[in-house]
Design goal:
By secondary structure, the chain is α/β, with parallel strands linked by helices. The chain folds into two domains: about 160 residues, 3-Layer(aba) Sandwich (Rossmann fold), CATH 3.40.50.1970; about 180 residues, Up-down Bundle (Dehydroquinate synthase-like, alpha domain). The chain is built from 14 helices and eight strands. The strands form two sheets. The chain has a six-stranded parallel beta sheet, with helices on both faces. The chain has a two-stranded antiparallel ribbon with strand order 6-7. Helix 7 runs antiparallel to helix 8. The radius of gyration is 20 Å and the shape is globular. One of its GO terms (cellular component) is cytosol. InterPro entries: ADH_Fe/GldA, BDH-like. GO terms for molecular function: alcohol dehydrogenase (NADP+) activity; butanol dehydrogenase (NAD+) activity; metal ion binding; methylglyoxal reductase (NADPH) (acetol producing) activity. Keywords: Oxidoreductase.
């Protein structure tokens, strides 16, 4: 039951067909939500497992930002049915829940003990994923974020690393809005990575950005373009393998805003991005000039216009009012204590 693996990534159109081989000898708990893409994936997985005689149980009704209550339900079901592996179907939220379940099944105490720092895990069920969202990067992480009393709580352990993750673009046929959200998450994270990157890593950032923008453009033209969707998955893995400390705070702030206001992360990022760019230009114009040249091949002013055009072409919000948000001074104060990030929020709320 102990797990401490480097995740095996199985990628490309049709890669879902490899799932039965990866699950040989396991009784698997399927953890999923109920968005149309996830429901379609669930049916395909059920058929595959039945064809290959692989035993499974089913746990649905996983909502975004899963809670300890959902994890406890999965732990109980796993113990009752004797599942030996937990398989997440969908995006980041289902994988967070699956990880919590995998951690809690062999532990006799309260699952919150790990998050409270009272105990360290000694073993866990194997956990794996079939991901429909190329932007989360959760397949490469070893963390589990659950919600307690309206606040996100994160716990990390090598035991939470996925045994394998299937990234099949044929299973991510989202309509334009969520697809563009996924794309912009990767664009914004790449800027955060470039700000942190060493000189030798910067050419790789530019190469990833070129491929990412090409994929986004292809999906803008034809949302069913499988080559472009495959490119989005490729860029997702590449971006999340780059080291990032988020020194500017953009991705952390957007994550907190998305959680607090029930926004898609991509929309939170696009709504903050122009204001963040302006504030960063005031703080460190030389750095923004450098990053703009590296990632976009132009100066900072032209780079800002290119990013505004990109946000518009992707039909995303370029300010908080465009995202339908009205933040009060109290709201802004509650989101961050950092003075620079408060300025970003204030500017994004006005623009």
């Amino acid at each position: 039951m102990t797990q401490n693996y480097e995740p095996q990534l199985v990628t490309g159109p049709g890669s879902l067909q490899e799932l039965p081989l990866l699950l040989q000898g396991q009784k698997v708990l399927l953890v999923h939500g109920h968005r149309p893409v996830e429901d379609g994936l669930l049916q395909k997985v059920r058929v595959l497992l039945e064809q290959h005689g692989i035993a499974r149980e089913n746990m649905g009704q996983i909502l975004p930002d899963p809670t300890f209550k959902s994890v406890k339900r999965g732990i109980s079901l796993c113990r009752k049915t004797g599942c030996t592996m937990v398989l997440s179907l969908g995006g980041g939220s289902t994988l967070q829940c699956a990880r919590g379940i995998a951690l809690g099944v062999p532990y006799k105490g309260k699952i919150k003990d790990f998050w409270n720092g009272k105990k360290k895990p000694k073993k866990a069920l194997a956990v794996a994923a079939v991901l429909t969202d190329p932007a989360t990067g959760d397949e490469l992480s070893d963390s589990c974020t659950l919600v307690k009393k309206g606040k996100q709580k994160k716990f990390r352990s090598p035991m939470l690393t996925c045994r394998f993750a299937i990234l099949d673009p044929e299973q991510s046929q989202y309509p334009p809005y969520p697809t563009m959200n996924q794309g912009f998450v990767l664009v914004a994270r790449l800027f955060a990575c470039a700000l942190d990157a060493r000189d030798r890593q910067l050419p790789a950032c530019r190469e990833i950005m070129d491929g990412l923008l090409e994929s986004i453009q292809g999906l803008e033209t034809d949302i069913h373009n499988m080559e472009a969707r495959t490119g989005l998955y490729k860029a997702g893995v590449q971006v999340h393998r780059l080291p990032v400390s988020d020194k500017s705070g953009l991705t952390t702030l957007a994550g907190d805003l998305a959680f607090a206001c029930s926004l898609p992360l991509g929309t939170a990022l696009s709504a903050l991005f122009p204001a963040w760019w302006d504030v960063m230009m005031q703080k460190n114009p030389a750095q923004m000039q450098r990053i703009s040249h590296i990632l976009l091949g132009c100066g900072a002013q032209q780079g800002r216009q290119r990013m505004l055009s990109l946000i518009s072409e992707m039909n995303l919000a370029a300010s908080l009012p465009e995202a339908g948000l009205e933040l009060t001074a109290s709201d802004i104060k509650g989101l961050t204590e950092d003075s620079m990030l408060r300025t970003v929020l204030q500017k994004a709320a006005r623009d």
